[in-house]
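Researcher: Go.
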Amino acid sequence: MQERALQRAFAWIVLVFLALVLFWGHLSEASSHRSHIVHVKAGTCEVIAAHRCCNRNKIEERSQTVKCSCFPGQVAGTTRAAPSCVDASIVAQKWWCQMQPCVDGEECKVLPDLTGWSCSTGNKVKTTKVTR
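Model: Structure:
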């Protein structure tokens, strides 16, 4: 009888040990996911993901995910082809070229439907469409 009680106690100890090991694994996995949180300094932006694709017409499409921490009155925008915080009125009124989105030497033009802008130099044109 005493032997049977010892076997049961041992089985419970093994089950509790396995449960603790599994629980510990979930905790460490959850903490590793938290380490991917991006903290951005106030007034700046940081690219957290970039995507690139090419279609049949040899037009390269690029998109990126950006995290910004802008000051009051500012929103995420583009300055010199890089993500930045810009005055909110520029975006609200769709005066895209006021952000100075193109690199030096490129000409900025707002698209006719006001959905973005293009930066051109010579025969090369880069078009940016704003999505929300």
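Model: The longest helix spans residues 2-34.
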